[in-house]
Amino acid sequence: MNLETRPTRELEELLIDAEADDEVVQTSPPMVSRPWLLLLGLILVALNLRPALSSMSPLLADVSSSLGLSAAKAGLLTTLPVLCLGLFAPTAPILARRFGAERVVLGILLTLAAGIILRSSFGEVGLFAGSLIAGASIGIIGVLLPGIVKRDFARQAGAMTGVYTMALCLGAALAAGSTVPLSHYFGDRWTLGLGFWILPALVAALFWLPQVGQKHGAHQVAYRVRGLLRDPLAWQVTLYMGLQSSLAYIVFGWLPSILIGRGLSATEAGLALSGSIIVQLVSSLAAPWLATRGKDQRLAIVVVMLLTLGGLFGCLYAPLDGLWGWAILLGLGQGGTFSLALTLIVLRSRDSHVAANLSSMAQGIGYTLASVGPFAVGLVHDWTGGWSAIGWIFAVIGVGAIIAGLGAGRALYVQVSSEKV
């Protein structure tokens, strides 16, 4: 059996041995001296990568009414941050080579905080400008974190990716479920409900600050990775990331509106979204661990995508008295689809340099593709005046994700070359 077709665990063991030998030759500094502090920092950073997105959808009707936004502008507001995730993701490796990944994460956390304040305090112009800045900030940080996980937690890559994804889902759930009650608490002021999420961003920046002074071995030397755009496996990982993300951002951006259209209040719809996201905590941790027990990840990808589609169709068409069951099913599926997408970036990469660049490609191109989903839902809703027809969007995206995932889930490495800059 050749190297390219060995099971994932054996490949990882060979990779770890090779990286260890390479570190001896280069006399690189050892792994970060306080991994618990890095882990805490990663969790707090991940908590901030979804509130700017999931906090808007439960308040979308109030925001539109307050600012006089048309249906087209409201649709753009759900699409713009996702589009920025993709458009700005490719800048992450460039910034990391110039300033170091840790410094970039710290600086972009502060930029994220600025975007949150801008969108909640300066009317329509601030709303769109702040959403753009927040989306760009999340896109840059999201690219860098898988490479950091690969570098400093190589032996626990699957489990650590699950922990990171759990934190990300928890942040999304908290924002989806509490933004409307916070707005009511502050006197029915949606601006304060949205602006509240600056506080977790500043706390994360404070706890991430010690990482700027740490030496992190492999990232002290800048590498350029070539050949990703010519590699079929890299494109399969990218398409899977983009298509499953498209479904996720349809849920973040439109599920509360869909449920409100079916008769729920804004608070009830926000809680349903929050509950679905909370369930993702379970599958986001379990799915990568289970997926790395077998020879590859293909079966796991099919299972979680079928769960996701079942939950989506249930929320869209099934009677509302069974809504929470469908929301739970949706959460189990989407927690697994996203955590597996991140895990594939790590497992399909030979080292942290390749992981950082594959992360940039998968999230840059993938999120740009993902933005089409929320935009399409808005268009179809405007054309038809209802929600029933968007089931076709779910089906097309879901089947595409399964096809891409069957390729991305094979136990192979992307074929690239890596050289020092």
Descriptive report:
It is built from 18 helices and two strands. It has a two-stranded antiparallel sheet with strand order 1-2. It is mainly alpha-helical. The protein has helices at 8-26, 35-47, 51-54, 60-67, 71-88, 91-99, 101-121, 123-152, 157-185, 190-195, 198-212, 232-261, 266-291, 298-317, 323-347, 352-370, 372-384, 391-408, and strands spanning 223-226, 417-420. Helix 5 packs parallel to helix 8 (123-152), helix 8 crosses helix 15 (323-347) and helix 14 (298-317) packs antiparallel against helix 15 (323-347). This is MFS transporter. InterPro entries: CynX-like, MFS, MFS_Cyanate_Porter, MFS_trans_sf. GO terms for molecular function: transmembrane transporter activity.
Strand order of the largest sheet: 1-2
N- and C-termini, Cα separation: 34 Å
Poorly predicted runs are: 1-30
Radius of gyration: 21 Å
Strand content: under 5%
What is the CATH C level class, in words? Mainly Alpha
> What is the tally of beta strands?
2
- Kindly report the CATH topology: Growth Hormone, Chain: A
Domain module tally: 1
> What profile does the largest beta sheet have?
2 strands, antiparallel
Helix coverage percent: over 70%
* SSE arrangement, N to C: HHHHHHHHHHHEHHHHHHHE
What is the annotated CATH architecture?
A: Up-down Bundle
Count of DSSP-assigned helices: 18
Shape: globular
Pairing-aware structural class of the strands and helices?
mainly alpha
User: What would the average pLDDT be, to the nearest integer?
Assistant: 83
Could you state the oligomeric state of the chains shown?
Answer: single chain
Q: Name the CATH superfamily assignment.
A: MFS general substrate transporter like domains
